[in-house]
Amino acid sequence: MSSRQKEFWLALGVSLAVYSLPEQFHTFLWRWTKFALYGFGVGIISFVTVNLFKSRRKEVVVVWPESWTASNTKVIKYVVDESPYITCQILRDREPVTYDLSWQNGELQVIFPAKQAGEYRISFSYNGREVRHSPWVRWICPGPPDPEQSEVTGPWAAGTTLVMTPGQLTQSQLKLKDAYKNLIHTSRFWFRTRWSHDKAFTKGSDCSDVRIEISNSSMNLNEVETQVESRSSEISLSARFILSGVYTINVLYKDHRLCSVQIIVCLPDQYSDIHNKSTQLDLVQLLGETYEKPKAVHVYLTNKTLSIKEYMMKVIPWTLVTHRISPRLSLSLDSKCSELVVINESFPNSRCVLRGPHVLGLAAGYYTCLEKRMGGAASSLEEKKEHFTKMIRDYHNNSYLQLLGNVDYLRNSKVYLKIKRHDIYDSTLKSVRSLSKTDWLKLFVIKFEGEDGLDQGGLRREWMDLFSKFIFNPENRIFMSVEAGGNGVQPNPYPPKHVKTDHYKLIGKLLGKCLYESCFGRTYRLNLQGQLSKSTLTQMLGSDILYTHLSVDAPELYKSKIKYILDNNVDDLQLTFTQEEETSPGVRKSLDLCSKGSHKLVNEKNKQEYIYRLARFLLVERVSKQTDALLEGLHSIIPVEILEMFEEGELELLLHGIREYNVEDLKLNFTTVGYESYRFLTVLSWFWTALSHFSKEDMAKFVQFVTGSSVLPPGGWKELSPKFQIGFTGESGRLPLSYTCSNYILLPNASSYQELERVLLLAVREGVDRFIIGS
Asked: Nearest 10 degrees: CA dihedral of 509, 511, 516, 519?
């Protein structure tokens, strides 16, 4: 039987078998046969229609940039006839990118910023229809490493001194970045730069140009082991020291120093016995004065202080100098570990030199105490904030709260404050005057008298904004600048009669409350409007005031008087140890800076004393009553021992937040709500353009319009909680709406860029002083 006959009989058998099946199966089979034929037909029609449509899409010649490495801008050229109906859209990781269009020599040039690495989706429409092959996908990859932008993270980044035991491994990480701060993958990988079927690749950077140098004049090569290892997005740096001593680690990239850190390698037995005990050493230099013959002294190290004492007649202790343990006090060893230099940055001419066999153990003990107080190797503000939060929680949990529950338990309780908006100062002080210690640790809930609104964070921030703006306004004479138009404010040395000393204590507690709330997440942040003087911030940290603080707080006085006295002979100026002050409006008096100061002339020998006394008078003594009350209130909530870990600038950032608004940073830290239609993306692109042209004042009002406060958290937009949200109403002829409790703005369907800019400015300028929806 042939194959054809076999096929015939097989088909006949299958047909008879199907025919013999029940009628229901015939119906079922016929239905599925019709469905298959229908689907096959639709597929053919769709295929023909799509290909016919594609064949009618306009073909354009595109001239792409020669390089896809990150740069300031890139230019795409389209060879196409001019038309008023040409549109282009560029998205970077789904975010619209602004661009400029220009016609040159019959080519349409699209110029767009290309600083950020990532995926770029480029679409081009001609006469309302996308051209052939649009959209295109391109990848911009990071440029070559830039030492100025690269950073070392981990313990070595602090730039302070680390204490280790022999044989212990210390590690940090290096993140290489290009000139535009794009992170560079440092392993030998292949980074795809164009669309999926392209064969062009760019090779990543490796760590061959990174070196670790160890400096110690008496070191042998066998005493230290170093390693540089690539790990994808970062480079691992490690070092191990075998013998005791002092070393300096330098991390270099192509001979450019990225960081430097001192390492003290010491056995625990060498410094554990030094704590809270006397260490006998030879004093070579004290406060800049060198002794011809070294003086035998005793050095005492405690958890808080480092003191140098000598014994009169070998019996009576006499304290020569005492330093508080803080980052401003540095101890440096020579390479042979025989001489220790002590320098306090808070005092001029504070250099002390000690010699003896125990200087290595003393330095190791000091930096061990400092590390415990400062939170280990915390160097960045973010790391310090984490340690600050832990210390504040531990402090209050271990104090008077043991019988009342811990801090988290108290957060469940609320204190309701009724505030009068038109009398923000008196109503606030009246509301908080009777609060107990535990009440200050509870969550404040604000109710503005005569207004509706549920406080979910927005009203609380608005209240603190209004109150701090009032007290820091020099016109209200509660806080004043050191000089007219100076930087920052300090307590008014001569306040009005209605401003009492206990008012400053309550204000100090409110400052402590702002810092305390930051420990519970960014949602609870309370930032201050205004700016405290550097000298006031320094005193809040428990540090001493120097005359150089005047260069910041009173720049005109420093330039015209202090610097002139320092640089010139003053014997003929007939200047006395006095200062003229306006003790009340229109009343000026001459006040002595020291005993019988009006009879003491300033000369070349005592001009340093005069400058010291003048700075102390202006920044400390004349405001001592008000400042002491302010600090008493602050430190009742935030102890000075915990605040000491911060620098003045860091404390200012925690209290006041960021005043500079970076629109580009906002573009990296927002989220959209709802469906991202083409119209929404168009309006969103106009929104970014409008913000980029806002004045600083309008930008501050915009931030307050959306978040309830014109001050951002210390970390900027990325620390805003909840995250900045943008939605689209789809409705025309409306103003933008904001929900401050969720940092959410709803954009209307504006007909043009000019319309969107107009309604945005109208909303932020008119709506910022009124209650906003969702506060």
From this structure: 180
